[in-house]
Amino acid sequence: MIVGTVRERKNEEFRVALTPASAGDLVCAGHTVLIETTSGVGSHYPDEQYTAVGAQIIATMEEVYARAELICEVKEPQPSEYALMREGQVVFTYLHLAAEPEVARVLVESKCIAIAYETVRLSNGALPLLAPMSEVAGRLAVEEGARFLKRPGPGRGMLLGGIPGVPPAHVLVIGSGNVGRNAVRIAVGLGARVTVVSNAIDQLRDLDQQYAGRVETAISSRGVIADLVRTADLLIGAVLVEGQRAPVVVTREMVRTMQPGSVIVDVAVDQGGCIETTHPTTHDEPIYVEEGVVHYAVPNMPGSVPRTASQILSPLTLPYAMSIANLGVEEAVRRDPALAHGVNVYRGAITHPAVAEALGMPYVPLEQAIAGAR
Known about the structure:
With 374 residues, this protein is α/β, with parallel strands linked by helices. The protein contains 14 helices and 15 strands. It has helices at residues 20-28, 47-51, 61-67, 101-110, 131-149, 178-189, 201-211, 222-229, 252-256, 306-327, 329-335, 337-342, 353-359, 366-373, and strands at 2-5, 32-36, 56-58, 70-72, 90-93, 113-116, 170-174, 193-198, 215-219, 234-237, 263-266, 287-290, 293-296, 343-346, 349-350. Strand 1, helix 1 and strand 2 (32-36) form a beta-alpha-beta unit. The chain is globular. The model has no long low-confidence stretch (mean pLDDT 97).
Protein backbone atom coordinates (compact mmCIF):
# COMPACT_ATOMS: atom_id res chain seq x y z
CA MET A 1 0.00 0.00 0.00
CA ILE A 2 1.06 3.61 -0.51
CA VAL A 3 1.10 5.41 2.86
CA GLY A 4 1.47 9.17 3.07
CA THR A 5 2.08 11.84 5.68
CA VAL A 6 1.74 15.56 5.08
CA ARG A 7 2.93 18.57 7.04
CA GLU A 8 0.33 19.59 9.60
CA ARG A 9 -1.58 22.71 8.56
CA LYS A 10 -3.26 23.49 11.87
CA ASN A 11 -1.95 26.63 13.54
CA GLU A 12 1.29 26.01 15.45
CA GLU A 13 0.98 22.22 15.09
CA PHE A 14 4.45 20.68 14.88
CA ARG A 15 3.78 17.01 15.60
CA VAL A 16 4.22 14.42 12.88
CA ALA A 17 2.17 11.25 12.46
CA LEU A 18 5.01 9.07 11.18
CA THR A 19 8.45 9.41 12.72
CA PRO A 20 11.40 8.07 10.70
CA ALA A 21 11.34 4.88 12.79
CA SER A 22 7.67 4.23 11.97
CA ALA A 23 8.18 5.11 8.31
CA GLY A 24 11.09 2.67 8.20
CA ASP A 25 8.96 -0.12 9.65
CA LEU A 26 6.35 0.41 6.94
CA VAL A 27 9.02 0.39 4.24
CA CYS A 28 10.50 -2.83 5.64
CA ALA A 29 7.03 -4.39 5.46
CA GLY A 30 6.99 -3.69 1.72
CA HIS A 31 4.95 -0.49 1.62
CA THR A 32 5.70 2.77 -0.15
CA VAL A 33 5.92 5.72 2.23
CA LEU A 34 5.51 9.29 0.99
CA ILE A 35 6.51 12.16 3.27
CA GLU A 36 5.76 15.74 2.30
CA THR A 37 8.97 17.70 2.63
CA THR A 38 9.59 19.25 6.09
CA SER A 39 6.73 17.27 7.68
CA GLY A 40 9.00 16.16 10.50
CA VAL A 41 11.06 19.31 10.94
CA GLY A 42 8.82 20.71 13.69
CA SER A 43 9.60 17.60 15.74
CA HIS A 44 13.29 17.79 14.75
CA TYR A 45 13.13 14.99 12.17
CA PRO A 46 14.76 16.36 8.98
CA ASP A 47 13.93 14.93 5.57
CA GLU A 48 17.27 13.12 5.49
CA GLN A 49 16.20 10.86 8.33
CA TYR A 50 13.21 9.71 6.27
CA THR A 51 15.17 9.06 3.09
CA ALA A 52 17.68 7.08 5.16
CA VAL A 53 14.95 4.54 6.02
CA GLY A 54 13.61 4.31 2.46
CA ALA A 55 10.76 6.83 2.52
CA GLN A 56 10.24 9.17 -0.43
CA ILE A 57 10.25 12.94 0.11
CA ILE A 58 7.47 14.61 -1.88
CA ALA A 59 7.44 18.32 -2.71
CA THR A 60 3.74 19.04 -2.24
CA MET A 61 0.79 18.03 -0.11
CA GLU A 62 -1.28 17.68 -3.27
CA GLU A 63 0.96 14.96 -4.66
CA VAL A 64 0.96 13.02 -1.39
CA TYR A 65 -2.84 13.05 -1.30
CA ALA A 66 -3.08 12.15 -5.00
CA ARG A 67 -0.87 9.07 -4.63
CA ALA A 68 -1.45 7.78 -1.10
CA GLU A 69 -4.11 5.21 -0.27
CA LEU A 70 -3.66 5.76 3.46
CA ILE A 71 -3.04 9.24 4.89
CA CYS A 72 -1.65 9.38 8.43
CA GLU A 73 -1.93 12.74 10.17
CA VAL A 74 -2.11 14.17 13.69
CA LYS A 75 -4.96 16.67 13.54
CA GLU A 76 -8.20 16.85 11.58
CA PRO A 77 -7.93 17.87 7.91
CA GLN A 78 -7.74 21.62 7.42
CA PRO A 79 -9.55 23.62 4.70
CA SER A 80 -6.56 23.42 2.35
CA GLU A 81 -6.94 19.63 2.42
CA TYR A 82 -10.69 19.34 1.94
CA ALA A 83 -10.68 19.09 -1.85
CA LEU A 84 -7.79 16.59 -1.86
CA MET A 85 -9.53 13.69 -0.14
CA ARG A 86 -11.12 11.15 -2.43
CA GLU A 87 -13.49 8.21 -2.37
CA GLY A 88 -12.06 5.11 -0.69
CA GLN A 89 -8.95 6.89 0.62
CA VAL A 90 -8.25 6.16 4.29
CA VAL A 91 -7.58 9.15 6.56
CA PHE A 92 -6.21 8.13 9.97
CA THR A 93 -5.89 10.97 12.49
CA TYR A 94 -7.46 12.74 15.45
CA LEU A 95 -10.87 13.99 14.26
CA HIS A 96 -13.01 15.09 17.26
CA LEU A 97 -15.95 15.43 14.86
CA ALA A 98 -18.48 16.31 17.57
CA ALA A 99 -16.77 19.70 17.73
CA GLU A 100 -15.98 19.85 13.98
CA PRO A 101 -19.25 19.55 12.02
CA GLU A 102 -17.73 21.16 8.93
CA VAL A 103 -14.94 18.57 8.84
CA ALA A 104 -17.55 15.83 9.24
CA ARG A 105 -19.52 17.22 6.30
CA VAL A 106 -16.42 17.27 4.10
CA LEU A 107 -15.44 13.73 5.05
CA VAL A 108 -18.94 12.46 4.29
CA GLU A 109 -19.06 14.26 0.94
CA SER A 110 -15.61 13.00 -0.08
CA LYS A 111 -16.69 9.39 0.57
CA CYS A 112 -13.31 8.69 2.14
CA ILE A 113 -12.84 6.33 5.10
CA ALA A 114 -12.04 8.40 8.19
CA ILE A 115 -10.63 6.64 11.26
CA ALA A 116 -10.27 8.66 14.45
CA TYR A 117 -7.44 7.97 16.85
CA GLU A 118 -9.60 9.11 19.75
CA THR A 119 -12.34 6.48 19.26
CA VAL A 120 -10.14 3.42 18.75
CA ARG A 121 -11.30 1.46 21.78
CA LEU A 122 -10.10 -1.78 23.36
CA SER A 123 -12.47 -4.38 24.81
CA ASN A 124 -11.86 -3.07 28.34
CA GLY A 125 -12.97 0.41 27.30
CA ALA A 126 -9.46 1.88 27.14
CA LEU A 127 -8.68 4.42 24.41
CA PRO A 128 -5.07 3.55 23.56
CA LEU A 129 -4.44 6.30 21.01
CA LEU A 130 -6.12 9.07 23.00
CA ALA A 131 -4.52 8.17 26.33
CA PRO A 132 -0.94 9.33 25.58
CA MET A 133 -2.02 12.75 24.34
CA SER A 134 -4.37 13.06 27.31
CA GLU A 135 -1.40 12.39 29.57
CA VAL A 136 0.62 15.08 27.83
CA ALA A 137 -2.28 17.56 27.92
CA GLY A 138 -2.96 16.91 31.61
CA ARG A 139 0.63 17.68 32.52
CA LEU A 140 0.74 20.72 30.28
CA ALA A 141 -2.51 22.03 31.77
CA VAL A 142 -0.83 22.65 35.10
CA GLU A 143 2.33 24.06 33.52
CA GLU A 144 0.32 26.51 31.40
CA GLY A 145 -2.01 27.37 34.27
CA ALA A 146 0.96 28.13 36.53
CA ARG A 147 2.51 30.23 33.77
CA PHE A 148 -0.57 32.41 33.33
CA LEU A 149 -1.12 32.85 37.06
CA LYS A 150 2.13 34.82 36.98
CA ARG A 151 2.82 38.37 35.91
CA PRO A 152 3.33 40.11 33.55
CA GLY A 153 -0.10 39.41 32.14
CA PRO A 154 -3.62 39.33 33.55
CA GLY A 155 -3.00 36.54 36.09
CA ARG A 156 -3.22 36.93 39.87
CA GLY A 157 0.54 36.95 40.35
CA MET A 158 0.65 33.71 42.34
CA LEU A 159 3.28 31.03 42.81
CA LEU A 160 1.42 27.73 42.43
CA GLY A 161 3.14 26.02 45.36
CA GLY A 162 3.25 29.04 47.66
CA ILE A 163 6.10 29.50 50.15
CA PRO A 164 6.38 29.09 53.93
CA GLY A 165 3.97 31.59 55.44
CA VAL A 166 1.91 31.95 52.25
CA PRO A 167 -0.58 29.23 51.29
CA PRO A 168 -0.31 27.54 47.88
CA ALA A 169 -2.72 28.12 45.03
CA HIS A 170 -5.88 26.02 44.93
CA VAL A 171 -6.02 23.82 41.83
CA LEU A 172 -9.46 22.37 41.03
CA VAL A 173 -9.47 19.50 38.53
CA ILE A 174 -12.84 18.45 37.13
CA GLY A 175 -12.50 14.92 35.79
CA SER A 176 -10.38 11.99 36.95
CA GLY A 177 -9.47 10.24 33.69
CA ASN A 178 -6.08 10.40 31.99
CA VAL A 179 -6.08 14.19 31.74
CA GLY A 180 -7.22 14.68 35.32
CA ARG A 181 -4.84 12.16 36.86
CA ASN A 182 -1.84 13.65 35.08
CA ALA A 183 -2.86 17.17 36.02
CA VAL A 184 -3.07 16.05 39.65
CA ARG A 185 0.38 14.49 39.47
CA ILE A 186 2.02 17.73 38.34
CA ALA A 187 -0.02 19.99 40.63
CA VAL A 188 0.80 17.90 43.70
CA GLY A 189 4.45 17.80 42.66
CA LEU A 190 4.52 21.60 42.53
CA GLY A 191 3.04 21.85 46.00
CA ALA A 192 -0.42 23.15 45.17
CA ARG A 193 -3.57 22.47 47.15
CA VAL A 194 -5.45 20.08 44.85
CA THR A 195 -9.11 19.12 44.68
CA VAL A 196 -10.50 16.59 42.20
CA VAL A 197 -14.18 16.39 41.31
CA SER A 198 -15.48 13.34 39.45
CA ASN A 199 -18.42 10.97 39.25
CA ALA A 200 -16.04 7.98 39.03
CA ILE A 201 -15.79 6.90 42.66
CA ASP A 202 -13.23 4.17 41.97
CA GLN A 203 -10.88 6.68 40.37
CA LEU A 204 -11.32 9.06 43.30
CA ARG A 205 -10.56 6.20 45.68
CA ASP A 206 -7.36 5.43 43.75
CA LEU A 207 -6.26 9.07 43.90
CA ASP A 208 -6.97 9.24 47.62
CA GLN A 209 -4.85 6.15 48.25
CA GLN A 210 -2.06 7.21 45.88
CA TYR A 211 -1.61 10.65 47.41
CA ALA A 212 -2.36 9.71 51.01
CA GLY A 213 -4.49 12.71 51.86
CA ARG A 214 -2.58 15.27 49.78
CA VAL A 215 -5.50 15.42 47.33
CA GLU A 216 -9.06 16.35 48.27
CA THR A 217 -11.77 14.48 46.36
CA ALA A 218 -15.48 15.13 45.82
CA ILE A 219 -18.33 13.46 43.96
CA SER A 220 -19.44 15.65 41.10
CA SER A 221 -22.66 17.63 41.28
CA ARG A 222 -23.65 21.10 40.18
CA GLY A 223 -23.70 22.38 43.76
CA VAL A 224 -20.34 20.87 44.67
CA ILE A 225 -18.68 22.31 41.56
CA ALA A 226 -20.22 25.73 42.18
CA ASP A 227 -18.87 25.80 45.75
CA LEU A 228 -15.35 24.72 44.76
CA VAL A 229 -15.04 27.01 41.75
CA ARG A 230 -15.27 30.06 44.02
CA THR A 231 -11.96 29.22 45.73
CA ALA A 232 -10.08 27.88 42.70
CA ASP A 233 -7.05 29.84 41.57
CA LEU A 234 -6.54 27.39 38.70
CA LEU A 235 -9.48 25.44 37.26
CA ILE A 236 -8.71 22.56 34.89
CA GLY A 237 -11.56 21.14 32.82
CA ALA A 238 -10.80 17.49 32.06
CA VAL A 239 -14.16 15.99 31.12
CA LEU A 240 -14.44 13.51 28.23
CA VAL A 241 -17.39 11.64 26.74
CA GLU A 242 -16.11 9.43 23.92
CA GLY A 243 -17.19 10.64 20.51
CA GLN A 244 -19.56 13.27 21.89
CA ARG A 245 -19.41 16.94 22.66
CA ALA A 246 -18.05 17.55 26.15
CA PRO A 247 -20.81 18.38 28.64
CA VAL A 248 -20.73 21.89 30.09
CA VAL A 249 -20.10 21.41 33.82
CA VAL A 250 -19.02 24.96 34.73
CA THR A 251 -21.47 27.72 33.84
CA ARG A 252 -20.82 31.38 33.17
CA GLU A 253 -22.44 32.19 36.52
CA MET A 254 -19.91 29.94 38.26
CA VAL A 255 -17.00 31.59 36.43
CA ARG A 256 -18.23 34.99 37.65
CA THR A 257 -17.67 33.85 41.25
CA MET A 258 -13.94 33.22 40.69
CA GLN A 259 -11.37 35.73 41.87
CA PRO A 260 -10.15 38.20 39.21
CA GLY A 261 -6.98 36.92 37.58
CA SER A 262 -7.73 33.27 38.29
CA VAL A 263 -7.00 30.90 35.42
CA ILE A 264 -9.11 28.34 33.55
CA VAL A 265 -7.50 25.66 31.36
CA ASP A 266 -10.20 23.82 29.41
CA VAL A 267 -8.52 20.68 28.07
CA ALA A 268 -11.89 19.49 26.72
CA VAL A 269 -12.01 22.37 24.23
CA ASP A 270 -11.17 20.00 21.36
CA GLN A 271 -14.52 18.35 22.10
CA GLY A 272 -16.35 21.65 22.39
CA GLY A 273 -15.26 22.55 25.93
CA CYS A 274 -16.68 21.71 29.36
CA ILE A 275 -16.74 25.33 30.60
CA GLU A 276 -19.37 27.67 29.21
CA THR A 277 -17.04 30.65 28.77
CA THR A 278 -14.34 28.89 26.77
CA HIS A 279 -13.75 29.04 23.04
CA PRO A 280 -10.76 27.70 21.09
CA THR A 281 -7.52 29.66 21.14
CA THR A 282 -4.15 29.04 19.49
CA HIS A 283 -0.57 28.54 20.62
CA ASP A 284 0.41 31.98 19.35
CA GLU A 285 -2.58 33.64 21.08
CA PRO A 286 -3.37 31.16 23.85
CA ILE A 287 -5.39 33.24 26.31
CA TYR A 288 -8.20 35.73 26.67
CA VAL A 289 -9.94 37.25 29.68
CA GLU A 290 -13.67 36.82 30.23
CA GLU A 291 -15.62 37.55 33.41
CA GLY A 292 -12.30 38.72 34.85
CA VAL A 293 -10.81 35.21 34.52
CA VAL A 294 -7.91 34.19 32.28
CA HIS A 295 -8.93 31.44 29.84
CA TYR A 296 -6.46 29.08 28.13
CA ALA A 297 -8.20 26.85 25.57
CA VAL A 298 -5.78 25.56 22.93
CA PRO A 299 -7.29 22.47 21.23
CA ASN A 300 -3.94 20.95 20.26
CA MET A 301 -2.05 21.43 23.53
CA PRO A 302 0.46 18.59 22.89
CA GLY A 303 1.52 20.41 19.73
CA SER A 304 3.67 22.63 21.96
CA VAL A 305 5.86 19.64 22.82
CA PRO A 306 5.96 17.98 19.39
CA ARG A 307 9.10 15.94 19.86
CA THR A 308 7.80 14.24 23.01
CA ALA A 309 4.29 13.87 21.61
CA SER A 310 5.38 12.43 18.26
CA GLN A 311 7.74 9.97 19.92
CA ILE A 312 4.84 8.41 21.84
CA LEU A 313 2.01 8.85 19.31
CA SER A 314 3.70 7.43 16.22
CA PRO A 315 4.69 3.99 17.62
CA LEU A 316 1.24 3.57 19.18
CA THR A 317 -0.64 4.34 15.96
CA LEU A 318 1.80 2.33 13.81
CA PRO A 319 0.34 -1.17 14.50
CA TYR A 320 -3.08 0.00 13.32
CA ALA A 321 -1.65 1.74 10.25
CA MET A 322 0.42 -1.37 9.51
CA SER A 323 -2.69 -3.55 9.75
CA ILE A 324 -4.56 -1.34 7.29
CA ALA A 325 -1.57 -1.33 4.93
CA ASN A 326 -1.05 -5.09 5.14
CA LEU A 327 -4.66 -6.23 4.99
CA GLY A 328 -6.65 -3.40 3.47
CA VAL A 329 -9.08 -1.44 5.60
CA GLU A 330 -12.05 -3.81 5.24
CA GLU A 331 -10.16 -6.88 6.46
CA ALA A 332 -8.27 -4.89 9.09
CA VAL A 333 -11.45 -3.66 10.77
CA ARG A 334 -13.03 -7.11 10.47
CA ARG A 335 -10.15 -8.64 12.41
CA ASP A 336 -9.72 -5.85 14.96
CA PRO A 337 -12.84 -4.57 16.79
CA ALA A 338 -10.77 -1.79 18.40
CA LEU A 339 -9.87 -0.39 14.98
CA ALA A 340 -13.43 -0.87 13.76
CA HIS A 341 -14.63 1.29 16.65
CA GLY A 342 -12.32 4.01 15.38
CA VAL A 343 -14.09 4.29 12.02
CA ASN A 344 -16.17 7.46 12.14
CA VAL A 345 -16.98 7.83 8.43
CA TYR A 346 -17.13 5.09 5.81
CA ARG A 347 -17.73 6.10 2.20
CA GLY A 348 -20.38 8.70 2.95
CA ALA A 349 -21.89 7.22 6.13
CA ILE A 350 -21.37 8.15 9.78
CA THR A 351 -20.50 4.84 11.42
CA HIS A 352 -19.90 5.81 15.05
CA PRO A 353 -23.15 6.14 17.03
CA ALA A 354 -21.95 8.82 19.46
CA VAL A 355 -20.54 10.94 16.65
CA ALA A 356 -23.77 10.63 14.66
CA GLU A 357 -25.79 11.64 17.71
CA ALA A 358 -23.57 14.62 18.45
CA LEU A 359 -23.78 15.84 14.85
CA GLY A 360 -27.49 15.12 14.44
CA MET A 361 -26.75 12.92 11.43
CA PRO A 362 -27.98 9.42 10.55
CA TYR A 363 -26.00 6.54 12.03
CA VAL A 364 -25.14 3.58 9.83
CA PRO A 365 -23.51 0.50 11.46
CA LEU A 366 -20.08 -0.12 9.99
CA GLU A 367 -20.95 -3.61 8.75
CA GLN A 368 -23.94 -2.18 6.88
CA ALA A 369 -21.86 0.64 5.40
CA ILE A 370 -19.22 -1.81 4.19
CA ALA A 371 -21.83 -4.11 2.68
CA GLY A 372 -23.54 -1.19 0.95
CA ALA A 373 -20.26 0.01 -0.58
CA ARG A 374 -19.40 -3.32 -2.22
